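Dear colleague,

Following up on Tuesday's group meeting, I ran the structure prediction for the two-component complex that the binding team flagged. I've pasted the input sequences exactly as they went in, so you can double-check that nothing got truncated or mislabelled along the way. The structure tokens for the whole assembly follow below. Feel free to forward this to whoever is handling the docking comparison.

Inputs:
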Amino acid sequence: MTLGLLSQYVFNGLMLGMIYAMVAVGFTLFFGVLDVIKFSHGDVLMVGAFTGLATYLGLQALGVDSALVQLLVMTLVATLSMALLGALIAKYLVLPLRLAPPLNTLLITLMLGTVLREAVRLFYPQGSNPKPFPRLLPADSLSFGSFTLRADSMILLLAGLAAIVAVHLVINRTKLGLAIRAVAQDAETARIMGINFEFIVLLTFAIGSGMAALGGLMNGLYYNEINFGVGLLLGVIGFSAAVVGGLGNIYGAILGGFLFSALQSLGAVTLPALFPGTSTAYKDVFAFAVVIIFMAWRPTGLIAEKKSERV
Amino acid sequence: MINFKRKTIVSLIGLGLAFAAGAAGAKQTVKLVFIGPLTGGVSANGIGGRNSADLAVRLRNQDPKAKYSYELVSYDDECKPNIAVQVATKAAADNSIIAGVTHYCSVTAVATVDTYHKFGLPVVVWGAVLPSITYGNKYAEVHRVNGTMINQNDVAAKFMTGMKYKKWVVIHDTTDYGKGHNQYFSEHLKKDGGQILATFGVTADQQDFTTELTKAKELKPEVIYFGGLTPLGVRIRSQMEKLGINAVFEGTSGIKSDAFIEGLGNKLAEGSLSFIEGAPWEKLPGGLFFTGKYSLQKYNEAPEAYGPFAYAAANLIIDAIEKVGPNRKKVTAELGKTKDRDSIVGKITFDDHGQNIVPLITKYVVQDGKWLVWEESEYGSGKRKLKGQ
């Protein structure tokens, strides 16, 4: 294998890993503040991508042709509306169930995911067909031997990185972030200290869901195609990535996302080489199997929460 | 007593007259079923087929000489075997349905043959190409107007090796459909002297192919053959571009749809190939009649590649019903006798497995956002060249 080829694999893996990491960050944020698992997260991503597409079509109809303007408006509309959706989900579905067994939250968000998915399928015009997603980024590319570096992939990678860094800064460097961390650590004490608990929870859900919308747009811009089922597998993978990394830990989620994409690429490359005749379709089986092993090895994730619960 | 008798006779005559008048005014309605993928990734083809079968029914209903009036019931098989068996059972168990125009997807067509056989519902498959649909069993009820993937891949392999291409990478989905394409294409290609550098089986809903394609890129194939349906075809072709793979994209009948070009845009779709059974219907007199009538009905969707087959299948069934009456057994027997029948997809002759023996395969290439018959394209005339030529 040449260096160029290796770089190509690594780059593909990074791109995929970035999308996974963005989903995983959402899972881990929600778990951090409320100890809940929101299974509709992947479908929020899909709705975000469809919102972006609808905005694009609307702009086209209005005669806005500049790709940059289209891109900015799409990102803004999709991110804000998903942030709102996330906050609404938190307020009306998750918070009321705070004192119920966690299983209820898990179930209710699982069902919400199905509702979102089917709603897009039924109500978006011809929603059950895959939709071509516009190519709005410059398609220039540089070739280094067998490695092709494309401007659009590079921009997406940087945008993803910027989003994750931004979330990181908000959480670690701002007062709001301090409040989020306080709620995550101990909701009761945070309340006594005068932190508006509900507001912080809603905000966290808004941030996580906005990230999902960004992930959805990135996914669409990268593959130039979206469909109503795209959130299902991304949700499961993002969740696994968050768990492997250590639920509640942002770095863990990012690490988990990249780990998962690396495992998938590794599976697709090595499985057919090791066992001739195996189809690369087994790469997901391989990746999930390794995740299971990881979880047996480190049940609390690669980067575990520092504090342990004491009774 | 006499009075009573007379009354009876009079009323009987009256009843008879009324019945005759009724029969002349409203014909008996005969129900047919259409089954295909009306939602999901390949729904463009399913809806095109549904419209085409519907066109056959509408045209016949306008014909004053028709003995019956026809009604088309349509069901969605979602291109999923489990759903297909459900709707097939629903249709077959409904005694008012006499025959069916069934299935675009091979996985659904092959899953339902037993159901049709068990319930004795005669069907004509209009789009699925897996050989075992007709050849897997010997069911009198199952017929097929389109050819199988064996002929298709034979031509696909010969055509490309004839153009001096030597090295292939094969990607196929891991359903029976994709595996079948892989099997027959590989067999034919080896016979014709082509070399397959690698074969990748992928899941039918996979999103990311960059790993498979990067590996393919390393092997430097001249052609990437893809055995599968439109949605995956769009993703693979588009990601080939992302990775800078400079090879011909050779598909099968599964990607011959306008949705393929729409999903990729004209530039990326340019030069993609597909192979499909039957005569190039656009060029046949019947084909022009079909397209003319189709556009008159103002359907929102295009008939797509297999629409003419659905139309031909529906017509075949209606002709049989006109001849022997709305009876499943008689229609089955009548369909089995089909020989040298003219249709818009060329002559139809069923062998003892109900398979139409069409020797003709048409080659298509995308040029400027349209699927054109190879011989009539600028590629065929040598004005444009495929990659690596």
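Confidence is low (pLDDT under 50) at residues 20-24 of chain B.

Cheers,
M.
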